[in-house]
Amino acid sequence: MNAIIALCHFCEGHGPCILFCTQAFHSAHDAQLLMDSAPPDKRLPHTSQGEESSLESLMQPPPKSSDQCEACRSVTDDHPGFMSHDTKAQISYISGQYPEQPQLYGILRHACVRSLNCEVCPGREGPIVFGEEGGCHTFSYTFNLQDSQARGFSRLYSFIVVMMDRVFLINLWPFLVKHFRTLIDELKSKAEAVFTREQDELKN
């Protein structure tokens, strides 16, 4: 499995949820086939009989848009997603609310829940790595954004990177911390500007 990058959010009504994710494919043809395939809730992975039981717990389909609120939904069920190409590196990227392979939704969902509920830094903001031997490992960077419509005027989010290679993930720590911090600072700045404007409107 290639690494998956995702933005997660703790919804006040539905708990931890995946807002958006991106997967890398080293073959543009494979990525295009995946984009043209059936929706996630109608696709099944190719497994042998012995693998079926081990994948059963990861086969729960993603929730439908009708079961979600605006805070935990980024695109509609029928949205085809986004595809971008790095021609120099010969890598294609597919982005959408959920992973294209159904079995990866369970893995990413599990990482999402842990990043927002369990594996957090003191103060609830900052980077951390967690995982299990023989399983997937996750880099998580949790942060809060100001929101005038949220309980306590703040919402909890996280950027996560999920992959099998723990050593490689740890070696990426400086790179991930630097660039996620840049993204988070920009999001905080935009959220603060909106929060201030909405608070001023309430006073008038």
What does this structure look like?
This protein is an alpha+beta fold and 204 residues long. The protein is built from five helices and seven strands. It has helices spanning 28-36, 49-55, 102-118, 166-171, 173-203, and strands spanning 4-11, 15-25, 82-86, 91-96, 126-131, 137-146, 154-163. Strands 3-4-2-1-7-6-5 form a seven-stranded antiparallel β-sheet. Strand 3 (82-86) and strand 4 form a beta hairpin. Mean pLDDT is 79; it is low at 37-59.
Q: Which band does the percent of strand residues land in?
A: 25-35%
Order of helices and strands: EEHHEEHEEEHH
Poorly predicted tracts of residues? 37-59
Strand-pairing-aware structural class: alpha+beta
> How is the main sheet built?
7 strands, antiparallel
The helix fraction, in percent, is 25-40%
How are the SSEs placed, and which strands pair?
Layout: E1 4-11, E2 15-25, H1 28-36, H2 49-55, E3 82-86, E4 91-96, H3 102-118, E5 126-131, E6 137-146, E7 154-163, H4 166-171, H5 173-203
Antiparallel strand pairs: 1-2, 1-7, 2-4, 3-4, 5-6, 6-7
